[in-house]
Amino acid sequence: MNDSKIEAEHLFRKKVLDTLDNQSSINTQMNFWFNEMMTYHGVSYSEYRIIRLLRKYQNGIEPSVIADKLAILRQTTTNMVDGLQKKYLVERLPHPVDRRRIYIKLTPEGVELANKLVEEMSSVQSSVLSHFTSEDMEKYLDIRTKIIKYTEDEIKKRYTEES
Fold first, then answer.
1. Phi/psi of residue 51, each to 5°?
2. Residue 147: which pLDDT band, with cuts at 50, 70 and 90?
3. Which of 64, 114, 125, 140 is 20 to 30 A away from residue 15, measured at CA?
4. Which 3 state secondary structure label does DSSP give 61?
5. Cα torsion 111, 117, 121, 127: sign
6. Whole-model pTM above 0.90?
7. What backbone phi and psi angles, to 5 degrees, belong to 91?
8. What are the boundaries of each domain within the chain?
């Protein structure tokens, strides 16, 4: 293997793959700044994600759906919903058919905050993205999509051949 190929592989392993990991330094830094932003509004970034999701479901959704859609543990969802309920941003409603189940729904205060936060986040993201050309973004998305596809292909190839 020549030096440029070794360098490219090193860059790929140390920099590119790291950005795809939720625990990567870039994702940790982004979460830190999103948390800082949300702190001004009395919620965490994780709570914001729930609020943003609930904004799409005006009649409410079950906690298990929140957990599945946001890829978080159900117990974590319960704890975060408890915190949001103490802040009067969400309410628990009985399921219309099965009284063992509940729906989580934004309160009017929660809807107001959700709208404000989504608008603010959109404004921040627009400002950040204004530093990049559409070609930059297309290249980024193209490369990221290819990495995911080639990873999927490689894993399928390795594990379907062994079956």
1. -60, -45
2. confident
3. 125
4. strand
5. positive
6. no
7. -135, 155
8. 3-131, 132-163
